[in-house]
Amino acid sequence: MKPQPLVKKSGKQFWMTEHCIDAGDFNSVMKIAEQIHNSLTIAEFNAYIHWWLREPVPSKMMLLSFQNKQLTPKAYVIGHFAKFIRPGYFRVNSVSSNNNNLLVSAYTGNGTVVIVAINMGSSPISQQFSINGGTLPSSFSSYITSQGKNFQQQDNIKITEGGSFTYSFPSQSVTTLVSV
């Protein structure tokens, strides 16, 4: 994935459409999270639309399992970018530590701050955040998808008066923090 300066210069929207990746195991699911992150942050897409929801035959590309009609881990990972980042929200500058295994993006709209963090590594990563500008939230709700956890809500995170907090992201996980 690389920046697309000609699209940005044209003033037109740039969408990833009709895209799908086979997700046979959780490592593949994490690669999908990484690709969505890179599409939104590096290439600066305005939208990312997954191609396959369900098909009449079993497939690893689906978001809904054919056999048991349950959402797949892939669907939960996509949910981190779809449930709380709503139309009209804007991606805002976010800078993470020099750890290449932690991918962080932040979005704001309607008075809400949404942070999506992807820990691609095999160890937990502790990251400090500072919220600058605007009205500071008092806390963040948190949701995690990892091996065995599907968009599971976690404890709320309290914000200090200075607008900072630290969060430990489990290995091989996607976490969404939503201001409360």
From TrEMBL:
Transmembrane segments: none
Molecular functions (GO terms): hydrolase activity, hydrolyzing O-glycosyl compounds
Domain of life: Eukaryota
Alphabetical list of InterPro entries matching this protein: 6GAL/EXGAL, GH, Glyco_hydro_b
PANTHER family referenced in this protein's UniProt entry, alphabetically: ENDO-BETA-1,6-GALACTANASE, ENDO-BETA-1,6-GALACTANASE-LIKE DOMAIN-CONTAINING PROTEIN
Protein name, UniProt field: Uncharacterized protein
Organism listed in the record: Meloidogyne enterolobii (Root-knot nematode worm)
